[in-house]
Amino acid sequence: xxxxxxxxxxxxxxLSTVSAAExxxxxxxxxxxxxxGWGTPQTNRSIRELPLSIGGRKFExxxxxHATSLARIGLGGGSERFRAFVGVxxxxxxxxxxxxxxxxxGRTLWQSGVMKSGDPAREVDVxxxxxxxxxxxxxxxxxxxxxxxxxxxxxxxxxSGARPQIAAVPQEAAVILTPKPGPxxxxxxxxxxxxxxxxxxxxRIPTQGERPMTFSVSGMPRGLTLxxxxxxxxxxxxxxxxxxxxxxxxxxxxRSSRPFKIVCGDTLSLTPSMGWNHWYAHYDRITDAMxxxxxxxxxxxxxxxVGYQYVSIDDCWMNAAKQRDPMRVGPLRDERGNILPNKHFxxxxxxxxxxxxxxxxxxxxxxxxxxxxxxxAGSHQHEAQDAKQFADWGFDLLKYDWCSYGEIAKGxxxxxxxxxxxxxxxDLLKKQNRDILFNLCQYGMGxxxxxxxxxxxxxxxxxxxxxxxxxxxxxVALKNAEHRAWSRPGSWNDPxxxxxxxxxxxxVGGLPAPCPLTPTEQYSFMSLWCLMASxxxxxxxxxxxxxxxxxxxxxxxxxxxxxDPLGQCARVIELDESTFIMVKDLADGAKAVxxxxxxxxxxxxxxxxADLGIKGRxxxxxxxxxxxxxxxxxxxxxxxxxxxxVLVRVK
Length: 651
Ligand code: GAL
Prior knowledge:
Layout: H1 2-20, E1 22-25, E2 42-43, E3 52-54, E4 57-59, E5 62-66, E6 69-74, E7 79-88, E8 97-104, E9 107-116, E10 122-127, E11 133-139, E12 149-159, E13 165-167, E14 186-187, E15 192-195, E16 201-204, E17 207-208, E18 214-218, E19 224-227, E20 232-235, E21 241-251, E22 254-264, E23 274-277, H2 279-282, H3 288-300, E24 310-312, H4 348-357, E25 361-366, H5 383-393, E26 397-401, H6 405-409, H7 415-431, E27 437-441, H8 448-451, E28 459-461, H9 473-481, E29 492-494, E30 502-503, E31 513-514, H10 519-531, E32 536-538, H11 547-553, H12 556-562, E33 571-574, E34 579-585, E35 591-597, E36 603-608, H13 609-612, E37 619-622, E38 627-631, E39 635-640, E40 644-650
Bound molecules: beta-D-galactopyranose.
């Protein structure tokens, strides 16, 4: 009996839904909440506003978008099927590689694999019964988003209940995870520090806690003195060698001490450099007054108390032949060929004196080409003169940006041609009577990580400007971490600056605005950069720091992962398409572990001790919350938010 009636009932049920079903086209939905890497989503045409066309086949309707793209569609269980033809639009201007993916409530329903320009359209036809949230995703296939024009052609839902709707990314509260630092002293910063013999030494002991505070140092090398109220060490060490010091601080609430090893020799930046760079906050609006204000805020905000040290000017401090601001137009050099700062920088020496007086260091920028990226005077054919000038002015770091050097190299991309300008400047910097860090900026050409140290660099950008890839944070990090073999004391892979809080606006008169990242993504940014031992340069607007942003930037336990003296970049263990683990060995035998979720839905991530090379029942500490979680046998499992990283220390 039962076996007869049951199929009939099922048939009736499905007939009733089929008869009620209607077709809802993706192109009729409100696309304003759809996100994409370039442009805005187009209805019934490609991202270039041309008829939709895939592999020579034209489509009347659909949505034209650009990697990386996401439409988060609320279905409320009301849809039965999704159908579409997908592929690269035929009018993309170059060779594209993209991936399409359809996810339902965290499960992958369909994926295209890598699709290239000219490939025939692939058909999607998936069952959506019972699905609440559908994600239509376009990825860049791991090679950047250039030319990635992607079409969801004839995309439609077969709907029998609630109508599909494109939803915004779920709003998140900006939760402050870290307890406020107490009034008692806490000395932070690296435990090992490199300098060269005979050069000026400057170190402000990064220390949290209420002022006034009294500092003392034991084991101080000959030639150095301490300002015991400010906690600033100055002088010069004549003799090469390793010096073991103990730094101490006390105030009315308590005391703190920290071992500190100075290695006086050839290697600088024994831990990743930390500081602030003006670029993503102020572009070509930067002035001397803003640089001084940045130095003030680095101290008053407490950032210097957790280790931020360099105050760096990027492009636009020189003159240009043509520029929107007449104050930045003028002769590029004087009659003796000396580089001339523009009228916004009346006295470079006075500026670095101001920064140094606070115990901080100063950074500057130029290009090996005739012009910088923003069209200002570069150093081509004035390299020796400029290196000496930067040292005489008192700068402690140089960012050397390839820019117009392509004209000089004339398209020669051989290793020797790529190394040449950097080796020239690297050698010159070593000869100055100051320790000047050398940051190579040429976007990773010629596997710069393999030879950046050899030409005198302490760090090198491994990719293009992150400014345009913020929606791709995890991919940038995964790509950067591939170069982990070259991460070591004095030699750092640089995936670009930290952009949280208020970040810039490159338009005329533009002012920094809240960055597009969710609070979780901002924590992830910092967690990933610390796991990768990347230089930590904040490049947001310091005048608009709020409590949340400071919390992201200033957790000393998180920064300690970055500054660990082993200098290791975390190893990546892929778990599935959205989740992965990053694990970094620390000098004291502990491991920093990041449980990462780059997917669009919250997910449970498990770090198995066997995969991580951990034995026994170690203690696990949540570094953002500064909270011990207990001992865990065999694994640590936690829920990780969309685009989140849970950062723990395991020992
Ligand atoms: C870019 C560089 C940026 C910034 C800019 C200045 O090439 O990657 O970090 O320095 O030039 O014009």
